[in-house]
Design brief:
With about 500 residues, the chain is of the alpha+beta class. The chain is about 35% helix and about 25% strand.
Length: about 500
């Protein structure tokens, strides 16, 4: 078996032979008249025209197979829309062009073929080639058709080959496009305006996470890459008079990786004026069912070893009662010492010894045992710095999360629009930061100033790639086209 170096050297010789014969190995133009999908779909008409004037057509694509010997060669082209078979015959193509193909063509090359359409004795739709031209000479071989790239790191590093050789992976990313298209279509039909908000911020708002920091040289200012999809900016737009807005975009969190966590990913956030969290639950349940149906064609699927059925009305559970039932601990009245003792008993690792972090760690332990779909409601105020408090119990908030297979899929709440309350909650976050909490939310005094001008009651909601990863039962990293890799 030839080494990669030997294969590359042999192909470079072929490239030079192309140049010597006056053929550009990388022309800018292509004569393609039909995509391969169009050739397949319109084959009967194309075959009928084969014997008439103008019956010859140009097709183009990457060569994925070459088979045959002597005076007959079969090739398979793929152009991303589909595949099509070509037949090169010495007598039909001409000896010079036929031999030139044998001298310079390889699997992996991009070529264009001109010919007439017919069916083989086996009924295979085929182009009988009368002319051909090189469009891009490949210098490295493709992976073996039936094995592809086996090493996980190599797959992610050479994602273009991974996708090329794996039709299931191609379908995965087509499904992902359907997922985002379905969200956009749904929200636009419901009167939402799509917006774009800053990805570089002086203070990060809208989530609790460690941000990435960079430097703005023109302003000589340290700035942060956003950790939410413009939450505090979108709320400003509600104050500006837009009743419903949404954004789908990238966000960045400088945290650890796991099957459900990455440092860079795409999320949706929307904000709807004059909608509370009760209406928001009904609205988003309808939305998620519609986008799941559009993406998968069904509301029943398996993920993380669990059977999920999104049809029917989803149950609702409360945060405090759920932890109490599972762990025998009331997180509203328990002390930090009691919480740490319980976490130690459970063998749960936790960071930080403030009540907010400890409460969150206890909840995440409980959440892993919930299959769903269920709505989690009545989340404590301490872990919800932007949510409106419940009038009947100010220690809880009008916050809701969808839980599936032990994980949080969405986050939404009646937005806090009381500037005094918001300022006080930011002050709590400020003290957490001063105490060394890197995930506490940065206070934003200008946001409070906006609230003092007035923002309507509203429901805000966020979800994203994690939900898609669960729908298709893949790790989040697998659902990204080009996940971040360490340099070699």
């Amino acid at each position: 078996m030839s080494s990669l170096g030997e294969i590359r050297e042999a192909r470079i010789k072929k490239l030079k032979l192309l140049q010597k014969r006056g053929a550009n190995p990388y022309p800018a133009d292509a004569k393609r008249e039909l995509s391969l999908a169009e050739a397949t779909d319109n084959f009967d008409e194309l075959e009928r025209l084969a014997s008439s004037e103008g019956g010859e057509k140009w097709l183009a694509g990457r060569v994925l197979s070459i088979r045959g010997q002597g005076a007959i060669i079969f090739v398979t082209l793929n152009d991303g829309t589909g595949s099509f078979q070509g037949l090169l015959k010495r007598d039909a193509l001409g000896e010079e062009k036929f031999d030139f193909w044998n001298e310079v063509a390889d699997i992996g090359d991009f070529v264009e073929l001109r010919g007439i359409f017919f069916k083989t004795k086996r009924g295979e739709k085929t182009l009988e080639v009368r002319d051909w031209r090189m469009l891009a000479k490949s210098l490295r071989p493709l992976p073996e058709k039936w094995h592809g790239l086996q090493d996980a790191e190599e797959r992610y590093r050479k994602r273009y080959l991974d996708i090329l050789m794996n039709p299931e992976l191609q379908e995965l990313f087509k499904k992902k496009a359907k997922f985002w298209d379905a969200i956009r279509d749904f929200l636009k039909q419901e009167g939402f305006l799509e917006v774009e908000t800053p990805t570089l911020e002086v203070t990060t708002g809208g989530a609790e996470a460690r941000p990435f920091k960079t430097h703005h040289h023109d302003f000589d200012l340290d700035v942060f890459m956003r950790i939410s999809v413009g939450e505090l900016w979108q709320k400003r737009l509600l104050a500006a008079g837009f009743p419903r807005v949404f954004e789908i975009g990238r966000l960045y969190r400088n945290e650890g990786s796991s099957p459900e966590h990455l440092q860079e990913f795409t999320n949706l956030e929307f904000y709807a004026g004059y909608m509370d969290y009760r209406q928001g639950i009904e609205f988003t349940e309808r939305m998620i069912k519609e986008i799941t149906q559009a993406t998968l064609g069904t509301l029943q699927f398996e993920t993380r070893g669990q059977q999920i059925d999104l049809s029917g009305e989803w149950a609702r559970i409360t945060y405090v009662d759920t932890v109490q039932k599972m762990l025998g601990l009331n997180v509203l009245t328990a002390t930090e010492k009691e919480m740490m003792k319980k976490l130690d008993e459970l063998g749960v690792k936790y960071e930080g010894e403030n009540k907010e972090r400890l409460m969150d760690s206890l909840w995440k332990h409980c959440r892993k045992q919930i299959i769903g779909p269920v709505w989690l409601v009545d989340v404590p105020k301490l872990v919800s710095p932007l949510s409106k408090a419940k009038p009947e119990n100010p220690l809880l908030t009008e916050r809701v999360q969808l839980l599936l297979a032990g994980a949080e899929m969405t986050n939404g709440f009646s937005e806090l629009n009381d500037p005094i309350d918001q300022s006080e909650r930011f002050e709590v976050q400020r003290k957490l930061i001063e105490a060394g909490d890197e995930e506490a939310m940065m206070p934003d005094d200008e946001f409070v100033e906006m609230l003092e001008h007035g923002m309507p009651p509203a429901f805000g909601f966020g979800m994203g790639e994690r939900l898609f990863a669960f729908l298709v039962d893949k790790p989040l990293r697998e659902t990204q086209l080009f996940p971040l890799m360490r340099p070699r």
